[in-house]
Amino acid sequence: MSLISQIFFAIVITSFTGTIALAIWSIFQNVLSSWNPDLVYRMLRCVCLLYILPVGYILVQLTVGDGYMRSDSLWQMNFSAAGITVFLYLSLEFIWAFQTVRGIIRYIRQGLRWRAFIRCSVPEENETVIKEFNLVKEELGVRRNIRLYRNKGFGSAMITGIFRCSIILPNGEFTREQLRVIFFHELTHYKSYDLLYKLLGMFVGVVHHWNPFSKNLLKLLTEWSEYDCDRKAIAAMYGEMTAKGYFKTIMVTMRHTPETHGGDYIFSMLYENQGSLERRIDYMKKYIEIKKAGKLASAVLIAAFILTSVTTAYAAGSGVADVQDTIYRGTESTSSVSDIVMEEGMIFIPADEDHSYEELVYANPEAEIIMPALDEGEIASFEWEVPPDTRYVSSFISLDKGQKVAVSCIAVPASSEYWIGIMNSLGDVWYYSGKSSLAYDFSVNANGRYRVLVQNKSTVDITATGNYRYYTP
Questions:
Q1: What is the reported pLDDT for 205?
Q2: With 90 as the cut, is the pLDDT of residue 392 above it?
């Protein structure tokens, strides 16, 4: 058949290779995270490359049947099919080509809209900001000319572009500490080639659009690039700022920034939304607690990962072995039963065992500001309409060990059973169960961020009216 047919066949095998690699990565993600979190992002990058490089296809062609034949000093590709097989194969080729072109056009349109938005940016004119930017570039060893802009339409600092990189700041005044965190973060993205891998992730999504498993790759690359960037930026600022200070600076800088959800385009933001920042903080807390594996061990594991992925795909592509699709779930997640002091009548449910509700509702998402608006001793009131088997949770409040959270609630109808309690950032829950009027104080035993919750355990809707406050006894 034609060269186009061979390209399509190569893409099918490559898609299978990448999917096998992604499945293996998913299986061992929890294990690697508990041993050496650095490896998770490195192996995810390998997954991305295995979706692009036709390693499995080349192995199949070189070793199975009449894959490649030597003729007149040229490598010629052979592929035979007849009858209905030809029709079906050509139909699949046409559908794939049509959807691929459609995806490319979509990204081109998105890129043109993005360029129009970027044109509204103006070069940074503040000499102090420019001086600090150049100083951070020098400290990180970045020699490339990266432009610095301002754009009033942006709510968060970001880096964009691959061949012509730019860092764009939102309007507003920043302290020297805030500027250094911004520049260290964005320039670390540049040094790690994160935007290049994001572009490759977009390419995978376009070429392998028919593969449902590849559609999540770009999201995973974006998420883990932020984890990796935070880790490297904090390490680069060692002696100047701790991890706690780093994230606190981001929180203060982005306090009044509206939440956004970055589209599929080539940029990385300092702050996208609360959920992503919470995950970044949780990752860093786990990372600090884990002793990193050596570089040699990391290299060996990555090589073994690639070999396993390619070997499995080769075996399936050549018909030698079946693909094993049973996924091992990894290690159990750890819970923090001691975060809240257990009192008489209180019940604790670890996050990985909690199946007590069908829906989790963030009661006041517009107030989900990372730095809590609630001051110590200040009372926050709520009135929530909670359906059956639903949990309503408040905004996060940052608490220190030794502090207490006083929660009181009245539920109507009075005969309905419900819970009031506390949930930490991992999803672990401490609660009391009852009816009508409930009021309890929860004693905090570990620094962290917590939410107040009300959960309806009855079969009818309830109206939960109450308040909460935290204080130091």
A1: 86
A2: yes
Domain identity same for 391 and 413:
yes
Domain count, the chain: 3
Q: What local confidence, expressed as pLDDT, does residue 460 receive?
A: 95
74 within a domain of the structure (yes/no):
yes
Name the residue range of residue 198's domain. 120-289
Cα–Cα distances in angstroms (integers) from residue 358 to residues 322, 354, 361, 457, 458, in the given order: 37, 10, 10, 11, 13
Per-residue pLDDT, 314 = 52
pLDDT at 114: 73
In whole angstroms, give the CA distance from residue 135 to residue 139.
6
Q: Region of 227 please: left (phi>0), alpha (psi -120 to 50) or beta.
A: alpha
Structure confidence by residue, pLDDT tens digits, 54-90: 877 777 666 654 444 333 333 344 444 444 555 666 6
Q: Is the pLDDT of residue 266 over 70?
A: no
CA distance 189 to 187: 5
Tell me the pLDDT tens digit for each residue of 148-201.
Answer: 998 887 777 888 888 788 898 888 888 899 899 999 999 999 998 888 998 898
- Taking the alpha carbons of 226, 232, 236, 242 in that order, is the dihedral positive or negative? positive
The pLDDT of residue 299 is above 70: no
Whether the Cβ atoms of residue 156 and residue 257 lie closer than 8 Å to each other: yes
Residues 367 and 221 in one domain: no
As a whole number, mean pLDDT of residues 334-362 equals 83
Question: Is the same domain home to 309 and 240?
Answer: no
Q: Is 53 exposed, middle or buried (0-12, 13-18, 19+ CB in 10 A)?
A: middle
Does the residue 93 lie in any domain? no
Residues 272 and 365 in one domain: no
